[in-house]
Amino acid sequence: MAKDVKPTRKELMQIEDRIDLSERGHGTLEKKRDGLIMEFMDILDQAQDVRGELSEDYERAQKTINMARAMEGDVAVRGAAAALQEHPEITTESKNIMGVVVPQIESSKVTKSLDQRGYGIMGTSARIDEAAEAYEDLLQSIILAAEVETAMKKMLREIETTKRRVNALEFKLLPELYENKEFIEQKLEEQEREEIFRLKKIKEKKEAEEEAEKAEAEAEAEAAAVEEPVASD
Amino acid sequence: MSIGASNPEYVNARVRARRAALFADEDYRKLIRMGPSGIARFMEETEYEREINALGARFSGVDLIEYALNRNLAKHFHDLLDWSEGRLYDLIARYLRKFDVWNVKTIIRGIYTETSSDEVQNDLIRAGEIDDSTIDRLLEVDTIEDAIETLNATMFYEPLLEAFDTYEQTGALVPLENALDRAFYENLLADLGRPQEGPEALYVEFLEAEIDFRNARNALRLARTGADLDPAAYYIDGGVLFTESELSRLVTDYDELVSHIADSRRYGDTLSSALTQLREAESLIQFEHALEAALLEYADTLSSSYPVSVSAVLSYILAKEREVENIRAIARGREVGLSESEIEDELVIL
Prior knowledge:
Chain A: Pfam families: ATP-synt_D. Chain A: This is A-type ATP synthase subunit D. Chain A: One of its GO terms (molecular function) is proton-transporting ATPase activity, rotational mechanism. Chain A: It is a peripheral membrane protein. The complex is a heterodimer of chains A (233) and B (350). By secondary structure, chain A is mostly helical. In chain A, 77% of the residues lie in helices and 8% in strands. In chain A, helix 1 crosses helix 2 (74-82) and helix 1 (9-72) runs antiparallel to helix 3 (126-232). Chain A starts with 8 loop residues before the first helix and ends with a helix. Chain B is mostly helical. Chain B has helices at 8-20, 25-32, 36-44, 49-55, 61-83, 86-112, 117-122, 132-140, 144-150, 157-170, 174-188, 199-225, 244-250, 254-262, 272-280, 285-305, 310-335, 340-347. Chain B is globular. Chain B starts with 7 loop residues before the first helix and ends with a helix. The chains are: A mainly alpha (233), B mainly alpha (350). Chain A binds chain B through residues 62, 66-67, 69-71, 73-75, 78-79, 82-83, 85, 113-116, 118-123, 125-127, 129-130, and chain B through 62-63, 66, 70, 101-102, 105-106, 109-110, 112-113, 115, 123, 170-174, 176-178, 180-182, 185, 214, 217-218, 220-222, 225-229, 234, 236, 283-285, 287-288, 325, 328-329, 332-333, 336-338, 343, 346-347.
């Protein structure tokens, strides 16, 4: 990298500007990464709770449906399920957590009262009610888990991207800029030293020339003084 | 007490032979240790051979067992209606109309969900009074309105017609299903009066218990759900446990409702342990289990008190239903991985 850099003052100033910008960006990204990690940890706790509840709800739903299928028969359970009139509806919106757009899932008609399930109450049993209720709870848990886990995955992806950016600034861009800056500074210092040396040399040469001229003039003057008395004779 | 031109002697003689073919307790204990395929093989060597063989090409696993059980049940109950005459026929048919309710509900649900008639047909149990040709015609109709019209010669026509407007307004099957159930329960005791002794007294007592238990179950479910439902709409007349106003009042107070059942002279002792559990537990299932067991205790007394009467026939019907429910419970229980003790404790009523 340093080899491609022109060792000029203008370039040095540009690099210094870039260093300043990168350092500020690095600080901001570090703060963003830390903030995202904190948000992620909160969501992770929530996701773990939701996952636990989801497993419990799933087991309970399976148990109740198994019991209902065993005691009422598959045909009766299927028949009660067929009577369902209003199916659950799901709408998704989005919210922003530190720049990350995560889904917000709204559900309706998931949990139903006894009369909203469609099957007649007189001809069915509590086993069917409990199986329906357990599956309604399970569906709620699935919707919540979908929301939380999607948010978690998006946050994780954003943390990874931010981390990569921070690392790129910290371990690649900034060291290179510092190296380039140092390279230019060294080159400029070297150029300065060379210039001083060159000026010194010129000065010495000039002084030597002046000395020589002076000596020559003196010699000519002496020679002229010697020839003058001979002519008068 | 006159039972009209009926033939209880003949029917009971045939029923005794059928009763002897029912599974014994040790058969259930064997079945509990088998998997679904083992249960199907076991059934192939018993009373259910014909149904297992007939359905074996179309179904497998527990579905085969369940459909074979339903078909066998339908065959036996159909025979009972074929054999019986006069007053006896009327008394048996009253109870077996619960299968008519089942079939009409299944067909209506099929129309509602646009399920193919072949699939719906598999789920029917043709053990009721509605003849096969009417059921076949019902399977062919495309709208619920046409289905109701097809039932115009049955006792379900008027109640369904009345409930149809509500169905059209709400779009939910609840009013139609409730109308069918209500018609069945209210017809159970119609014109029977309250005989004090004899086989019909026991028969009436059993049907009253059936209605009382249904009212109790529905009241407890309504009390727990918290939904804004009119309790009177779910009250079935004919029992001794609740009056309509009592039920409407008790549904709003769960503890008082449980106390009311516990204080009942007729059922308090039989259900006391289940009621104690009910006060503590979240679930109604154990209580329903206790109600089913209590009904079966009634059934056992029916057969021994008047062996040549409608009571003995009803006792056989209940024993056969219990057998079908137990085998299905074992097979489904094994299929879904329940342990032997879970099946014994929670499912099988011996």
